[in-house]
Amino acid sequence: MARIKGIDLPNEKHVEIALTAIYGIGRPLAKQIAKNANVDPDKKMKDVDQDELARLRDEIQNLTVEGDLRREVTMNIKTKMEINSYQGVRHKRGLPVRGQSTRSNARTRKGKGKTVANKKK
Q1: Which of 18, 72, 101, 121 could form a disulfide linkage to 9, CB 3.0–4.6 angstroms apart?
Q2: Phi, psi (rounded to 5 degrees) for 23
Q3: Total of domains in the chain
Q4: From CA 66, how far away is CA 22, in angstroms rounded?
Q5: Do 2 and 9 touch, CB atoms closer than 8 A?
Q6: Residues 6 and 40 in one domain
Q7: Average pLDDT in the 90-96 region?
Q8: Do 89 and 36 lie in a common domain?
Q9: Beta strand 7-9 with 2-4: parallel, antiparallel or unpaired?
Q10: Cα(23)–Cα(25) distance, integer angstroms
């Protein structure tokens, strides 16, 4: 099993898909990384040799991924909360941050519905 940035990449998946197991790498970026490292994106991870794996590691080394990226995102959210920006206030209250409707939906952010008595009239 190949390890990059402390993540075990699945052996049975293609390189392009396996790289998406790393936080901060999606399909388009994984395809670009494979192309820059001269690795066939349709090759299975178990068939990638050590030389190709080293080239993939070098490409990923230049990116902000995994722990560094998680820390950066968390710090950005905390900063927004400290300066009381609109998004920061929404984060504090546990409401949707990006303008979604909250009248009938948003149960993922708001949690289980609370029944209000005498609402019918």
Answers
A1: 18
A2: -60, 125
A3: 2
A4: 6
A5: yes
A6: yes
A7: 95
A8: no
A9: antiparallel
A10: 6
pTM of the model: 0.81
Please state the φ and ψ torsions of residue 5, each to the nearest 5 degrees. Answer: 55, 35
How many other C-beta atoms are found inside a 10 Å radius of the C-beta of residue 42?
A: 10
Q: Is 117 a member of any domain?
A: no
Which CATH number does the domain housing residue 8 bear? 1.10.8.50
Query: Which token pair is 102?
Result: 């909250």
Higher pLDDT, 103 or 96: 96
What would the two tokens of residue 46 be?
Answer: 């178990």
Answer yes or no: is pLDDT of 39 > 90.
yes
Place 120 in a pLDDT band, splitting at 50, 70 and 90. low
Supply 44's token pair. Answer: 């299975």
Using the predicted structure, report yes or no on whether residue 90 has a pLDDT greater than 80: yes
Domain with 50, as residue range(s), is 2-66
DSSP 49-66: -HHHHHHHHHHHHTS--H
CATH code of the domain containing 98: 4.10.910.10
**How many Å apart are CA 71 and CA 79, to the nearest integer?**
12
Tokens of 55: 């080239």
